[in-house]
Amino acid sequence: MNQKASPLLIVGSMAFDDLELPTISAKNVVGGSATYSSYAASVFSPVRLVAVVGEDFSSKDLEALARRGVDLAGLERASGKTFRWAGRYDTNLLSRVTLETQLNVFADFRPKLPRSYVDTPYVLLGNMHPGLQIDVLDQVASPKLVIADTMNFWIEGEPDALAAMLKRIHMLVINEEEARQLSGQHNICKAARDILRRGPKSLIVKRGEYGALLFDADSTFFAPAFPIEDVVDPTGAGDTFAGALAGYLARSGDLSSAGLRRAIMAGSAAASFCVEAVGTAKVARLGLPDISGRLELFRSLMEVKHDTSLVTA
Amino acid sequence: MNQKASPLLIVGSMAFDDLELPTISAKNVVGGSATYSSYAASVFSPVRLVAVVGEDFSSKDLEALARRGVDLAGLERASGKTFRWAGRYDTNLLSRVTLETQLNVFADFRPKLPRSYVDTPYVLLGNMHPGLQIDVLDQVASPKLVIADTMNFWIEGEPDALAAMLKRIHMLVINEEEARQLSGQHNICKAARDILRRGPKSLIVKRGEYGALLFDADSTFFAPAFPIEDVVDPTGAGDTFAGALAGYLARSGDLSSAGLRRAIMAGSAAASFCVEAVGTAKVARLGLPDISGRLELFRSLMEVKHDTSLVTA
Question: Terminus-to-terminus CA distance in chain B, angstroms?
C-alpha cells in the first residue's frame, strides 16, 4: 500500500443476492453497494466501512474484507437478517427485474460513525435515503472529497432531501437514465449542466458498456468502457466503478480535472473485472497489477496519434 | 485541396426527405446516403458520384455538389420521380418511424460507372441491394479500399448476396443492432469476430451518441462521439460519418490501424456537425477548419495523462 494513500469512508448496503443469470443461478451471493465498493477501493487506499449486517452474515466474509485493509469498526451487526435482493437478468444481461427485496436490518440502518472515522478525508456515500447520506456528512469533520450515488427511487420519492444532499457533495455518480430523470432533460449535456447547478462540482454519468462521461465546470471527458467478451454478472459493476474511483482519488489526492480522468479510468478498469465473474469473486481479489495491466489495454483502446497536416487546407 | 488526395467513388441513394422533427417539420429536404456521404467526403478528397435522380431534382442542388468537387459524370437522371422518404422522429430524437417510402427511380437503379471512374482507388458503397454493390465492384479495376454499408432489410432478405458482398470488401460500417443481427451474437466483441471471419479486414460499429468501435485483426478502438447540446436532425449522420471517413482515407492513403483511427475521428467530427442542422445544411458547407477545430475538441475530450506510479505497488 502506498504510504500516502488517505483513508476512504464508505457507507452503503451489505446484502445477500440471489442472482438468476442467463447461464447460472447463484444464491446467497455476498453483495451490496458497500461490499463491492470496499473491495474495489481497497486496491488503492485504506477503507473505513459503515454498514449493517444481520446475524446470518458470516465472520468469514467479514474477515475477507478485513484482510483487504477494510476497517470494520463502523460495521454494525444487528439482530435479524441481512438485506436480501433477488433478481433475474435477461439473456443479454442488458436488463434485470427485481424478484424480491427484503430490507431486513437495512430498514432501520442509521449510519453511526465511530470516533476513529470522524477525520476521514474521502467519503463515498452509496445509494440510500438522501437524508441518511446527509446524516453521515454531519458526522464527518471536514472531508476533502464527498462522492455520492443515488437512484430513481429517491429522485421520485425524496426530491427535497435529495436537493439538500446535492448541496453537500462534491461529485455525483449516477447512470444516464437517472441523470435524465433528475434533471428533466433528455440531452445529456443539458442534463449535466442542470445537475451541476444543483451543487456538485463534478458529475459522472455511467453508461454501462458505453463507458462514462465526466462533466465539470471546465471540460467534458468521454471515458471508454473496456469491451468484455464474456460478461458473466453485471451486478455491482457500478459500485465497483465508484469504489475504485474513490479509492484511486484517496490514493492520489489529485482532484484536478486530469486527476479525475485518471480515477475514472481506474474505476472502469475495476468494473471491467467485476463483470467477469459472479458476485465479488473477482473484485475481492483485485490487485494493482490487474488494474495497471488493464489501464495499459485502455491506453491502446483510446490511442489516436493525431496528424494535423491532414486537416490543413 | 491536398494534391495527393485520391478520388473516392461513392455509390448510393439521392432522395427527397420529409422530416417530422420534434420542433420543426421540413418537406422536400435533399437527402439520401450518397448526398450526405459526398458532401462529407468532399471536404477531404475529390468525389466521383454514381446515383440516380428523377426529373424533379433541381439543377441547383446538383450544382451545389459540383461546386464541392463532386464529379457528376456517373449521375443518372431518369424519367420519373426521385426516391422519397418520410419519417417522424420521437421527442428525444432517439428513434424514428418511416411514414412513407417511394422508391421511384431508385427502384430500377443499376449503377453504371463511366469509363473515367474505372480506376478509382477508393470506393464507398452506400446501403443498397448487396447484389448491386457487387455489380459496382465488378466495374472498378483494382480498388485499394472498399468500404460498404448495409442494413437489416438485406441481412434478413438477401443473406447469400450479402455474404458474397462481404467477401469483396475491406471494411464494413454498420450500426450496433445490425452487427448483432448479422452475426447472431449479442456481445459486440463476439459479433465483431464473427463478422471479420466473413470477409472484411475491419469493422466499424456505429453506436450513435455513444461513438463507434473499430475492430480489426490486431486491435480494438473505442471512438467517442462528440456530445452535442442541440441535436436538431440526426438524418444522414451515419452517411456523413462514412463519407468523411472514406474521404479522409482517400486523402491520407494511410490504411494502417493508426490511420483508420484518425479517419474515424474525422468521421465523428463531420457527423457531429451534420446533426446540428436540418438535412445537409451544415454538411454541405463543411470545411477543413471545421473538422480540425472539432478534432482539437475531441483531443481534449479523450485526453488522459497516464501516471503509472499510482498503480504501482
Answer: 52
> DSSP letter at A214?
E
What does the pLDDT average to over A284-294? 97
Which of chain B's residues have a Cβ under 8 Å away from the Cβ of A300?
Answer: 219
> pLDDT tens digits for B42-85?
999 999 999 999 999 999 999 999 999 999 999 999 999 999 99
- Is B262's CB within 8 Å of A295's CB? no
Calpha distance A82→B141 (Å, rounded): 71
- Calpha distance B181→B151 (Å, rounded): 10
Chain B residue with minimum CA distance to A227:
B189
Which residues in chain A touch residue B89, judged by CB atoms under 8 angstroms apart? none
Residues A303, B261: C-beta atoms closer than 8 Å: yes
For residue A21, which amino acid is it? Answer: L
Which chain B residues are closer than 8 Å to A228 by Cβ? 189
Tell me the average confidence (pLDDT) per consecutive run of 10 residues in chain B, 313 residues long.
82 98 95 98 98 97 97 98 97 91 96 97 97 98 97 96 98 96 95 97 96 94 93 96 98 96 97 97 97 94 90 82
Q: 3-state DSSP call for residue A56?
A: coil
Average pLDDT for A178-200: 96
Strands (E), B210-271: 212-216, 220-223
Average pLDDT over residues A37-52: 98
Phi and psi at residue B196, to the nearest 5°: -65, -25
Identify whether the C-beta of residue A19 lies closer than 8 Å to the C-beta of residue A25.
yes
Give the bridge partners for A148, in sequence order: A125, A172
Beta strand B145-148 pairing with B25-31: unpaired
Q: Tell me, what's the ipTM?
A: 0.91
Single-letter amino acid, residue A270: A
Report the alpha-carbon distance of residue B2 to residue A96 in Å, rounded: 53
H/E element, B123: strand B122-125
| Percent of chain A predicted with pLDDT > 70 | 99
Grid cell locating B281: 445544411
Contact between B63 and B23 (Cβ < 8 Å): no
Residue of B nearest to A208 (CA): B210
E-assigned strands of chain A?
8-11, 15-20, 25-31, 47-53, 70-77, 83-89, 96-102, 122-125, 145-148, 171-175, 202-206, 212-216, 220-223
Nearest-Cα residue of chain B relative to residue A294: B311
How many angstroms separate the CA atoms of A146 and A288, rounded? 24
List, for residues A102-142, the tens digit of each pLDDT value.
999 999 999 999 999 999 999 999 999 999 999 999 999 99
Homologous superfamily of domain range A8-303: Ribokinase (3.40.1190.20)
| Residue count of chain B | 313
Q: Give residue-wise pLDDT tens across range A2-40.
A: 458 999 999 999 999 999 999 899 999 999 999 999 999
Choose the closest CB to B312 out of A91, A189, A292.
A292
Question: From the CB of residue B287, how many other CB atoms can be counted at a distance below 10 Å?
Answer: 11
Mean pLDDT of chain A, nearest integer? 95
The CATH architecture of the domain made up of B8-305 is: 3-Layer(aba) Sandwich (3.40)
For residue B284 the three cell numbers come to 454541405
- Other Cβ atoms within 10 Å of A3 Cβ, number: 4
- In SS3 terms, A162-201 reads as HHHHHCCCCEEEEEHHHHHHHHCCCCHHHHHHHHHCCCCC
Mean pLDDT across A44-65: 97
List the grid coordinates of B67: 461546386
Cβ <8 Å between B301 and A188: no
